[in-house]
Amino acid sequence: MIFSFGSSQYVYPENLDSIFRLLSKIQNKTIELIIEEPGNKSEINLISHKGSIPRGGFSYTHNYKFYADKNGFKTISWDLIEPYKLQKGFFPFQQGTMNLSGWFQFN
Fold it and tell me: What does the mean pLDDT of the chain come to?
């Protein structure tokens, strides 16, 4: 079982794809991958976008389901969570912040 809470946003997209690919090669084991990562809301549908979107610096908003599907993982759940309601003048540093939450399995 692997948990990622806030750290895989710093993984380059090509390396994230490699991680899923390498995990899918493990035999005779069930791999559970649980991800809860921040992202930035954009004009793109982040639940279905095929790949990753740069957030700035070396941080990315990844569509983990895209990489999981590509490498043969089963999706148990995949959700976009928006904890902050956009309100003018309220928490401006959190405007557009959302989380991507996923649970993926390979066996």
Answer: 85
